[in-house]
Design a protein that fits this description.
mainly alpha, globular
């Protein structure tokens, strides 16, 4: 004898709507709605159960993933690159500030990142709207593997650059393992000073080059900060993250201090690689554009790549 329940009863017990227009019972409909309503708090709880370090980097990952989807869906469009890539720092920091109870050093650090990220993302978005296309990225973004690589690099840049801040977020409220202590005001003031110097340097350098290019199209910029460094905006960025590293020292466990200090060193090496032409195509494009200008040859020979009056100026 067959003891299996009828198929409609079985489907009803599973809250499945059968094909063919058969109506679902009121109770099963209510059950389905309640199940869907339960998804949101479950996801929210899952995210909130992660450490602030993971939450911060998860936000950066999601934003860069969205950027990748846009690039894959609209080939050739570059307006969103820096708006999302650079803006992800501000969004991640804002999310953490709204959902976590932070130490004094972490609050300083969060605001520093929000101000820098919002400022730079806004400027780069405005520049993208004006120039339409960055020739340095044209080849990379012309293929799907290139798009994936670009956004993967953008995500890694966000994670590595933010290490002093994100590692500081992982500290407990007591900072009992910190070799410095959670409320060392001296580190906050000194870190803020270095950060402000870097922020002004990066901002002034970007402004000087942008205004120069508007009035002198087709010429290389060698005025203001660009007369003492070939890449003063890079120097400013290094100072910004060095300042943020110093701010977070009171929040860090002693084991995390060396890892956090790697951030400005990695940025310096990365920017130096860009300035030397090892990373990216910026140097090759500049050489093609200005190579016949004797003034440009003198400029690259006599002006340091990054820090003024240092031995780091050679491209060789």
């Amino acid at each position: 004898m067959n003891n299996k329940p009828p198929l409609p009863s079985l489907l009803s017990s599973w809250n499945i709507i059968p094909r063919g227009g058969q109506q679902q019972s009121q109770s099963s409909t209510t059950s389905l709605k309640l199940s869907l309503l339960d998804i949101s708090p479950t996801l929210s709880s899952s995210v909130s159960s992660l450490s602030p370090f993971l939450q911060y980097n998860l936000v950066i990952l999601v934003i860069n993933f969205v950027g990748m989807l846009i690039s894959l869906s609209f080939p050739g469009v570059q307006y969103h690159l820096d708006l999302l890539g650079t803006g992800s720092f501000a969004l991640a920091s804002t999310y953490i500030m709204l959902t976590q109870s932070l130490l004094q050093a972490q609050v300083f650090s969060s605001w520093a990142i929000i101000i820098w990220s919002t400022k730079l993302a806004t400027f780069l978005f405005y520049r993208a709207m004006k120039v339409k296309e960055d020739a340095r990225l044209g080849e990379t973004l012309s293929t799907k593997p290139g798009v994936v690589f670009f956004w993967l690099l953008s995500f890694l840049w966000g994670v590595i650059s933010s290490l002093p801040h994100s590692l500081g977020l992982a500290a407990s409220s007591s900072c009992s393992f910190s070799p410095i202590g959670g409320n060392n005001i001296g580190f906050l003031f000194f870190g803020t000073f270095v950060y402000i110097v870097g922020l002004f340097m990066e901002t002034i350098a970007d402004y000087q080059k942008w205004t120069f290019k508007q009035t002198n199209p087709g010429q290389f910029c060698n005025i203001g900060l660009w007369s003492i460094s070939q890449h003063p905006n890079f120097v400013g960025n290094i100072c910004i993250w060095t300042g943020i590293t110093i701010m977070n020292m009171p929040s860090l466990e002693w084991r995390l201090v060396p890892i956090a200090c790697l951030c400005p060193l990695i940025l310096w090496r990365f920017f130096l690689g860009q300035a030397q032409g090892i990373v990216g195509s910026g140097v090759d494009l500049a050489t093609k554009r200005y190579g016949d200008d004797t003034g440009y040859s003198d400029y690259i020979e006599n002006v340091p790549l990054l820090f003024p009056a240092t031995t780091f100026s050679s491209r060789k």
